[in-house]
Design goal:
Elements (H helix, E strand, L loop, with lengths): L1 H29 L3 E4 L3 E5 L14 H14 L9 E5 L7 H21 L7 E5 L18 H7 L2 E6 L5
Parallel strand pairs: 3-4
Antiparallel strand pairs: 1-2, 2-5, 3-5
């Protein structure tokens, strides 16, 4: 009996979370921010070049997009959820250097969110270096792909599902 109730409650939580995630995605889209639902939560995809090569300073466009994202992060839909801030780099440089650079990028985004009144206790920043590229760093012939590398220099925000917190 207790196991059945636990399963039913888990199912209800998943349905409620999915509905909230759909609303979060709609709200993010209203700010011109691309997002998608994953098993972990809602991933906010920050389009265009987010960081210049070998830099962790935010562009003016990135600051504006983060201020828009913070409106949703501070809304009643998301205010009780944690936010994972995950930094990435392109494939140029050593793995150790890229992990440190990606950590600085994630921390820079975290500071910008704090500036926009997102509670520090809700955020956790981590760098992943060149892992998990979203575009090829090189072309099929082995030549450099500057456009792909630029897309990989990014930070993703994940509005975590309650089960991931």
């Amino acid at each position: 009996m207790g196991k059945t109730i636990t399963i039913l409650l888990s199912g209800l939580l998943l349905v409620a979370c999915a509905t909230t995630n759909e609303k979060l995605i709609d709200e993010l889209k209203s700010y011109g921010l691309e997002s998608r639902e994953t098993d972990r939560g809602v991933v906010v995809i920050l389009p265009d070049v987010f960081f210049e090569f070998d830099k962790y300073d935010l562009t003016l466009d990135a600051r504006t997009r983060l201020q828009n994202a913070s409106q949703t992060l501070n809304s009643t839909l998301a205010q009780s959820r944690e936010i994972a801030i995950e930094g990435y780099t392109d494939s140029v440089g050593t793995e150790e250097y890229n992990v440190k650079l990606s950590e600085k990028r994630a921390e820079t985004v975290q500071r910008e969110l704090l500036f926009s009144n997102v509670s520090k206790g809700r955020t956790r920043a981590k760098g992943f270096g060149e892992s998990n590229p979203i575009a090829p760093n090189t072309n099929a012939d082995g030549s450099d792909n500057p456009e792909g590398r630029a897309k990989n220099r990014r930070v993703e925000l994940i509005i975590l599902n309650p089960s991931e917190q």
